Amino acid sequence: MFEQVFFSGLALGSIYGLVALGFAVIFKATDVFNFAQGMFVVCGAYLAVTAMSLLQLPFPLAIVFIVGAAALLGVLIHMVLIQPLSGRPMLSVIMLTIALSIALRSLIEIVFGPQGRSLTTPLPTGVLMLGSVRISYLHLTAALVSWVCMAGFGLFFRFTSVGLLMRASADNHEAAVVSGINVNTMNRLAWAIGSTLAAVGGLFLGQLQIASTELEGIGLLALPAVVIGGMQSIPGAIVGGLLVGIIEQMASTYISPKSSDIVIYVLLLLILMVRPWGLFGQRELGRV
Amino acid sequence: MNTVLDIQHLSVAYNRKGLALEDVSLQVPQGGIVALLGANGAGKSTLIRAVTGLLDLHHGKITDGRVHMSGQIVSGMPAHSLVRMGMGQVPEGRLVFKHLSVEDNLLVGAAVLPRAQVKAGLQAVYQLFPRLLERRNQAAGWMSGGEQQMLALGRAMIAKPKLLMVDELSLGLAPLIVIEIYKQLRVIGETMGTAMLIVEQNAHLALSFAHSAYLLQQGRVVLSGTAQEVLASPEMKVSYLGEAKAGKGTT
Amino acid sequence: MNQTAVASNKPVNGLWFVFWVAILVYLPTLLTERTLFGIPLTNTQLLNLGLTQINLMLISMLGALSLNYLTGCAGLISIGHAAFFATGAMAAAIFDNQLGLPFPLVLLAAALAGALAGTLAGLPSLRVRGLYFVLSTLAVHYVVTYIFLEYQFKFFDVVGIPYATPQIGSIEINTPVRWYALLLPLVILVYVGLKASLKSREGRAILAMRDHELAATAMGVDVRILRLKAFGLSSAIASVAGALFAYYLSNVTSEAFNINFAIQFIAMIIIGGMGSLPGSLVGAAIWLLLPSIIGGLSPDASSENAFLSKLLVENRAQLVQLIFSILVIVFLIFAPGGVAGLGTSLKNRWTAWRNTP
Predict the structure, then answer these.
(1) From the CA of B157, how many Å to the nearest CA of chain A?
(2) pLDDT tens digits along B181-213
(3) What is the pLDDT, as a whole number, of residue A286?
(4) Pairing state of beta strands B195-199 and B33-38?
(5) Is the pLDDT of residue C2 over 50?
(6) Contact (CB, 8 A) for B158 and B117
(7) At C297, phi and psi to the nearest 5?
(8) Residue B241 lies in a domain
(9) Looking at residue C85, what is its pLDDT?
(10) Mean pLDDT score of chain A, rounded to an integer?
């Protein structure tokens, strides 16, 4: 039984890790705490619904559609909303992303209706038995794809020229400008990546559960995940996501389903009081 | 064109404050090394920002005049475009990427180069500054001030710029290190023919290194000429005495 | 300001004061009778407003004032404000439903409970600042609302906690007019109190702390204690507002205090103007009254455009939310000082125009 809970926690945690990674990329690049990340997940789920049910696209094309649309959304949001507010006080930026999430939520509910929509994709369903542990193929696929995306991003970030420029921009904005980097382009790229990763998470969560605006709550768990892992740390965000997934499943099973959120937030409070820079973060950012 | 940098009647103002620069004209000829001198607040940083496209970042605006680089109008262009056009920048405070390795820092500067030339570019910088080669995989933030300055210089030079803008190289560095770096700058100037505009607090050091100089006072050019002329001029003495009287001003 | 200007302002100020008092006193009659000096007014003419909206607006004003005091004046960004409303509601449940204390004492108990909760919630500020502190307020929100949920389930019902009609002495507060008579003086009291508090030595220290913490510390201000005090006061007010809210609705569940509830108050102070007490009032007014006004407009539009009418009828709530979130975004980008900021710049232009020869 324990292994069961652990594995589904790991699978869900992989998705959280993906969403948290997207969040961390946005934060590292533009210093924006994107409260709308949860809604990006929802957008991903509804983009999938649009592609599969409304447009009836073949699955590979649907993936292209989802990724493209999500990336475009991220870029537009940066251009229209985030860039004008650069340099403004933190509450303004926080409130902007919160207002954005509300706007997206109401827009989606107006277009698609407040009820959720079921999402069917050719992704494998069915169950795999590993000893006494039941693992659903969907969970497995979700985890696998999440890991591939995270690894892919890691490789991109570390080993490509563009990834280097992104790291440089995140390191020191003015130095990047002086070195010939178009920081605006880097920031837009960060937002495109952040929203795309969230959208992929939404694609899976939408099928694991249902495509609805309620998914936002799950997407928002990326916030404590990133803090627990360490806000400025890319691997930290991933580990944070995994931890949150496992703890959530454990709490849900062994304590009560309602308590899973609260356990995570209490943990968040503890980390903030004891080790604010997270498990993998660096001390210099402890007192922001 | 013979002039690499041509500043014509430039005036600059910051948000709601008066003019920080008024009617400044300045030329840097090809292969020339020009020193920009003046006390704190005279407008040196403002001039550099106006030329390097960083005014926006500091809430400033060009109100009059033009900046040309190799005959092209560049005033108002964003900084990253200028770098691609051949303007290398060594900013005040060095501004290295602290969490990236030395080699990564250089690779950032080399991003404008075609792939094939990157390796050669790296080798050239390492030859110039062997200490950087020793520390190539270390995080730049852990290096000493002098090493960081060399890194900033290397990062700017690796793209083989036509014009190098150096802002307050000597700040916070030990005199011996400063002299060593200036020696390397001279080597660069002689071998690569890079034109340079040097902002430098230490007027004597700058004048022993540059070909010509401009003296700024309260946003205006009050003196210009060859290095020897400027060194011997009465205005320089006044400027220096003025600084000494006021207790060398604030940082 | 020259002497003549000051002298000429006094009678004008006096007139404004009388005018506003007259309006505030006449308002309940206007809205209940729906007539103006005997002439009946239509719903649209009264902007589709009733005393219910006004009363809810007054309760929200308490929330907006307390949040603006905390965030706009003391500089402590908090998105957990709903938690203190919940604290007040819970205190009211404990001290009224369970312990049977009289209403005024219940409110007092709510204030104390809120102050305690606020001080506790402010403790993370001793350890972390900025973004991390905001996150701690989010965590506090979830913890407190969870406690409320558990309390509700344990002692009451899934449906919610019921609240009896409040009574002051022998007077029952069971009509909108009586609620208005209770809430309006309370709002005025809190407004005047906060304004006076900000003018006091401690209040000015709080403002200094917001603007330049280092300088304030150098002047001998203990910022840590000051922060906790600000949190305590703000939460006490919010807690009282929460208790009143619970009594007003006569039944609340933990859902009433979800994160959206907290976000609304932030929206109010952004629209009204951060750090501006009058702005808090304006922001709360806009936020509470505008949906009713929009709703009042819709029947006229429906006949023309089928699509628009479908939008307005079926998705009214979402449409209002969409409009409001866009409104907040527009304010954030173009008018960061809120309505108060716009008001100040308008006033400056007016004075400048008047003073040009």
Answers:
(1) 11
(2) 888 888 888 888 899 999 988 888 888 888 999
(3) 34
(4) parallel
(5) no
(6) no
(7) -80, -25
(8) yes
(9) 94
(10) 87
Name chain A contacts of C333, Cβ cutoff 8 Å: 81, 84-85, 96
Residue A285 clears pLDDT 90, i.e. is over it: no
Q: How many separate domains does chain B show?
A: 1
Question: CA A273 to CA A254: how far, in whole Å?
Answer: 26
Chains in contact with B, where contact requires at least 3 CB pairs less than 8 Å apart: A
pLDDT of res. C306: 63
Per-residue pLDDT of C70-79, as tens digits, reads: 988 888 888 8
**What is the sign of the dihedral through the CA atoms of A176, A177, A181 and A182?**
positive
Phi, psi of A193 (to 5 degrees): -65, -45
pLDDT tens digits, C177-212: 888 888 899 999 999 999 999 998 888 888 888 877
Whether residues B95 and A168 touch (CB distance < 8 A) is answered with: no
Question: Residue B226 is part of a domain; what is its CATH number?
Answer: 3.40.50.300
Residue (of B34, B28, B162, B33) closest to B88 by Cα position: B162
Q: What's at A167, amino acid-wise? A: R
Q: What is the ipTM of this complex?
A: 0.85
Q: Residues of chain C with pLDDT > 70: what percent?
A: 88
Taking residue C53's Cβ as centre, other Cβ atoms within 10 Å add up to 19
Query: Which amino acid is present at C254?
Result: S
> Is B78 an 8 Å CB contact of chain A?
yes
pLDDT in tens, A9-62: 888 899 999 999 999 999 888 889 899 999 999 999 999 998 888 888 888 888
- Considering the domain boundaries, does residue B146 fall inside one? no
CB spacing of A96 vs C329 below 8 angstroms: yes
Q: How much is the pLDDT for B251?
A: 45
Question: In this structure, is residue B16 part of a structural domain?
Answer: yes
Quote the pTM value.
0.85
Distance CA B165, CA B35 (A): 10
Q: Mind listing the pLDDT tens digit for each residue in B100-153?
A: 999 999 999 998 888 889 999 999 999 888 989 999 899 998 899 889 999 999
For strand B87-90 and strand B163-167, is the pairing parallel, antiparallel, or unpaired? parallel
Please give the residue range of the domain that contains residue B219. 3-93+162-245
B77 touches chain A (CB under 8 A): no
Pair A211, A48: CB distance under 8 Å: yes
Q: What H or E segment, with its residue span, contains residue B11?
A: strand B3-14
User: Which residue on chain C is closest to A224 by alpha carbon?
Assistant: C135
Q: Which residues of B touch A182 (CB under 8 A)?
A: 78, 80
Buried b (16+ CB within 10 A) or exposed e, B216-242: bbebbbbbbeebeebbebeebeebeee
Interface test with B, best of A179, A184, A234, A280 (most B CBs within 10 A): A179
Residue A185 distance to chain B (closest CA, Å): 11
Q: Give all chains having 3 or more CB-to-CB distances under 8 Å with chain A.
A: B, C
- Domain assignments of chain A as residue spans, ordered by start: 2-285
Q: What is the pLDDT of residue C297?
A: 65
CATH architecture of the region A2-285? Orthogonal Bundle (1.10)
- Is B216:B43 a contact under the CB 8 Å cutoff? yes
Q: Are strands C167-168 and C171-172 parallel, antiparallel or unpaired?
A: antiparallel
Whether A90 has a pLDDT exceeding 90, the answer reads: no
Question: Which tokens go with A188?
Answer: 């837009």
Q: Is residue B131 part of a domain?
A: no
Q: Are C339 and C280 in contact (CB under 8 A)?
A: no
Query: Of B15, B45, B80, which to mutate for an interface test with A (greatest number of A Cβ within 10 Å)?
Result: B80
Instruction: Say how far residue C303 (Cα) sits from the centre of its chain.
Output: 36
Question: CA of A85, closest CA in chain C: separation in Å?
Answer: 6
